[in-house]
Amino acid sequence: MHPEIDTPALLVDLDVVRANVTEMAKTAAAAGVRLRPHIKTHKIPELARLQLEAGATGITCAKLGEAEVMADAGIDDILLAFPVWGRPKLRRLAALRERARVRVSLDSPEVAAGLGRLGGPPVDVLVEVDTGQHRLGRPPGRPTADLVAEIAAVPGVEVVGLLTLAGHAYHARTPGELAETARREGADLVETAELCARDGIVLREISVGSTPTARHVAGVAGVTEIRPGTYIFNDTAMMRLGVATEETTAARILTTVVGRPTPERVVCDAGTKCLTSDGYGTPGWIRAAGLPYLHMNFLNEEHGVARLEPEHVGELPVGSRMQLIPSHACSVVNLFDTVYGVEDGEVITELHVAARGAVR
Ligand SMILES: Cc1ncc(COP(=O)(O)O)c(C=O)c1O
């Protein structure tokens, strides 16, 4: 299995990537909404370009550093889905605005005031709404409508819409619960925008959606934009939610078996340094592609320790290779400088993870 590559390594199946990108673009087009993928999953300008060529109208970034890398690559329509605060970042934002259309999400008049002092044309902002994750934002309805009015009064910014991430959808226990959370994600924002309109503030953008909710929320009347990110690679978290299968997961950690201390125990060279601790310990949080009878027991920093079911104890001698499907693709990609792109089972390209580590 890819003897030309030393392990551990991050592989990405480009055929699966293309299929995932196309499917989400079709979902957005069928619902009549724009697709603005979150690039935090791949952090690779070439893959952002692929998403744009497939129909995305812009991209979403969390960090200014990610946005700068994407603008360097010629991408000129960027949503910064994170409040930009403090002089150093505001200076960088001003420079970024010289070469790209940038809008920013926020949830306070304080952050809006900083943006308003940038000068130049008003900064387009989206007000973040808390639809149940309890991260940023006020609850939908009157609390958000009042916040929109406060922010709209700040000179130098223009409130163009509302934004939410229904992050609690990642904990949905049934497909029905997931669908209902997604429907509410859209409906909450649309109803809040109607309230704002009655207050005299017309909002044109309703920006919602993650990989688990995008396919449901895209169809809610009034939604204008979806922002899924993980869908390009998928991971075991998406498999658990029923929105991905092993076949639609594109990112794999190629790892070598380095120890077989007991008949059932398999120790490989991929630990938390490759796979992170995200999802740690949940059954099925790390899966071995094509090996449903191998169960990851635990990870140390350098070691992955797994167990074989009794009827398979003779398999996977020292030196064998496996491909592990991560629990959280986005944070795994952040750990690698290079992604090996695979097509028809062959490594055909090396992609530089240009926006990795962009914490600021
Ligand atoms: C603001 C925002 N939008 C969109 C996304 C994309 O969600 P997902 O990776 O589940 O597709 C995220 C993920 O963290 C996010 O924080």
Automatic annotation (TrEMBL):
Enzyme superclass (EC): isomerase
Alphabetical list of SMART domains matching this protein: D-ser_dehydrat
EC nos: 5.1.1.1
SUPFAM superfamilies with a match to the protein in the record: PLP-binding barrel (SSF51419)
Pfam families associated with the record: Ala_racemase_N, D-ser_dehydrat
Domain D-serine dehydratase-like: 250-343
InterPro entries on file: Ala_racemase_N, D-amino_acid_metab_enzyme, D-ser_dehydrat-like_dom, D-ser_dehydrat-like_sf, PLP-binding_barrel
UniProt keyword list: Isomerase, Lyase
A molecular function GO annotation: alanine racemase activity
Family recorded in the similarity comment: Belongs to the DSD1 family.
Stated name of the protein: Alanine racemase
Phylogenetic lineage: Bacteria, Bacillati, Actinomycetota, Actinomycetes, Streptosporangiales
